[in-house]
Design a protein that fits this description.
With 395 residues, the protein is mainly α. Helices cover 63% and strands 2% of the residues.
Length: 395
């Protein structure tokens, strides 16, 4: 970040309204390209929240995390804004003065240091959140809770100063409105990209990772043949690719004598197993998925469904990982570019309170999206806490 901000603009003599002249008009000082640079980080900050609301909890539950613990940490992280947002607003407003006096604030201002550091750690926490390890459900739930809360901490540290920074770029209200409009425009485009990214990455081939998924994602006939040989996928969710289609003694002994049915064309085992689950006459050979007893058909379909789900989980994990890379690759450069290029027209940490303009800029007045109303967060916390109690209730 380059040091030194723009000098505060003062009104010419005779235009301050004290002698009856017209009030001063704010001068234009924020060109379009700077407005564009300011709006760019908006393409990742808020859109990630929308993406997570659609896919995050659902995917983690598929990965094996406890739904009750997911709900508990989600409620805790969301209600964390009750304290974190107002506290961060106060901290960034007071930075560079009083007990928060520091050389970095006097050199770079009271907003940019938080944005610069926060963007890096926020991206790191998102990447870790979207790349969970293959572990048992308890550890996976703890992994989710730690990095989900960590994400919200760094999101607050980054977004609160960022939104307040936009109000300090110009003393012209139209230019400030244009800066926030550009942020909103990038938020809209980013939301469309973020919401479609997990589905898109799951459908395309990702170098190295897609090849690794081939260990579990096999053609339907080959997957069925593996199950008939006693090779299952039950340990894949905790151990990963190395445990794909490993031999299981109980599965092997149960399916002794079973064989695939001779059919013309490719048999859709997913559809056949779904029909077998609701079959009434389980002795009808035409309804059976494989040649064998009813119990063997039950075990076979359970094995096939588990391996089919394991393939879906592997593809969703790859998609999540790619979204994490995309988020970090976009957010860090755009926030750092804003920190290096843009300057506040007035910053008490640099210019001092004596140079204060007529309209003081406070973070708690300008964090229009990040500072959520307290009553909304409290209601959300109570609602999600109720869900935790319901989901945790023994059946």
């Amino acid at each position: 970040m380059a040091d030194g901000d723009a000098e505060p603009q003062t009104a010419p003599k005779g235009q301050n309204g004290a002698d009856g002249d017209a009030a001063p008009q704010a001068t234009a000082s924020l060109p379009f390209w700077k407005t564009f640079i300011y709006g760019m980080p908006g393409g990742a900050l808020l859109p990630f929240t929308g993406m997570w609301a659609l896919y995050g909890n659902k995917f983690y539950e598929e990965f094996g995390a406890s739904l009750a613990i997911i709900a508990l940490f989600t409620a805790f992280a969301r209600s964390f804004d009750l304290v974190a947002d107002p506290l961060m607003s106060y901290i960034t407003d007071q930075s560079g003065t009083g007990f928060l006096s520091c050389g970095c604030f006097k050199k770079y201002g009271r907003r940019r240091p938080y944005m610069f550091v926060g963007a890096f750690f926020m991206s790191g926490s998102v990447w870790m959140l979207l790349n969970p390890p293959y572990v048992d459900g308890g550890l996976l739930s703890i992994w989710f809770g730690f990095f989900y809360v960590t994400y919200y901490v760094w999101e607050t540290i980054t977004a609160i100063p960022y939104n307040a920074f936009g109000a300090e770029l110009s003393d012209n209200s139209d230019e400030r409105t244009g800066a926030f409009f550009m942020e909103g425009l990038f938020e809209g485009m980013g939301a469309m990209a973020m919401v479609s990214a997990p589905v898109g990455f799951a459908m395309i081939s990702v170098p190295f990772y897609s090849n690794r998924n081939e260990a579990i994602c096999r053609p339907s006939e080959e997957m069925a043949a593996q199950c008939l040989m006693g090779n299952g996928c039950t340990t894949f969710f905790e151990e990963g690719w190395d445990s794909a289609f490993t031999s299981h003694a109980s599965l092997t002994s149960t399916l002794v004598g079973a064989a695939s049915k001779a059919v013309t064309g490719v048999l859709d085992y997913r559809v056949q197993c779904a029909a077998w689950e609701v079959a009434v006459n389980r002795a009808d050979e035409a309804i059976k998925v494989i040649s064998g007893s009813a119990i063997q058909n039950d075990v076979f379909c359970q094995c096939y469904d588990t391996c089919d789900k394991a393939c879906e989980v592997a593809e969703n994990r790859t998609a999540f990982m790619c979204v994490g890379y995309m988020f970090a690759i976009y957010l860090i450069p755009t926030v750092w570019l804003s920190c290096c290029i843009l300057r506040s027209i007035w910053d008490p940490a640099i210019h001092g309170a004596a140079a204060e303009p007529g309209e003081k800029v406070k973070a708690h007045r300008w964090c229009h999206r990040s500072c959520r109303p307290w009553i909304t967060d409290l209601s959300e916390f109570c609602f999600q806490l109720g869900l935790v109690m319901v989901w945790s209730r023994p059946l």
